[in-house]
Amino acid sequence: KIFIPNRFESVLEDSRFEYSALLMNVQSDLKKFESLANLIRVQNGGILAFLIGASGVGKTSSVYSASVFLKDQFDGVVSVPPEMALRDVMKWLQVSISIKKEKITLVLFDGREVTDDHIGLKELISSLNQLLRRRNDLLFVWPTTDSDWHSELRDIVEKVGGSNLSPEEADVYIE
Fold it and tell me: Do residues 113 and 147 touch, judged by C-beta distance below 8 A?
């Protein structure tokens, strides 16, 4: 029986695969992550980055690629479980990323294209703002395929955290 995965996420969920062997060194994407790491160092605080692109273009793969090909800057990937309610994310993060590290940890917030919990969303972004101000070892990465959703998120983020939480350069387009 041959198993051929058609999405990177299915590789991550299957213990038969070692994902690092499947990743490609896409320099244009890696340069974007290097730029985000430099931005974190300059402002001495973590940031929220939006990965924007069509479904299947490689947004999630690019996060894992950065952890593999830019090991000198990134410590690894911590993936927030996609089924977790928005109001529970910060409690989970406090346990999962409690220890501050020398390198930057990539926090992947995948599978969040819509919510009916707008209060929970605002609470999450507000708490995230407070966390990232104190943690220059975190890059919170939120992939999105929907431009309207991204605009809605961007509006909330700018009201809560100004330009430091998610600077304009933190909108990363993956093609």
Answer: no
What is the C-alpha to C-alpha distance for residues 175 and 173, in angstroms, rounded to an integer? 6
Q: Sheet holding 104-108: strands in order across?
A: 74-79, 104-108, 138-144, 47-52, 171-173
CB-based burial label for 90 (10 Å; 0-12, 13-18, 19+): middle
Pairing of β 74-79 and β 171-173: unpaired
Does an H or E element contain 138, and which?
strand 138-144
pLDDT of 13-47, one tens digit each? 555 555 555 567 778 899 999 999 999 999 999 99
> What is the token pair recorded at 4?
């051929």
Report the distance separating Cα 150 and Cα 78, nearest Å: 22
Separation CA 108–CA 80 (nearest Å) = 6
Which of 21-35, 91-105, 157-171 comes out lowest in average pLDDT? 21-35
* Threshold 0.85, pTM exceeds: yes
Count other Cβ atoms within 10 Å, centred on residue 38. 12
Among 165, 92, 73, 80, residue whose Cα is nearest residue 122: 165
Q: Which amino acid, residue 106? A: L
Output phi, psi for 53, to 5 deg.
Answer: 175, 170
C-alpha of 141 from chain center: 1
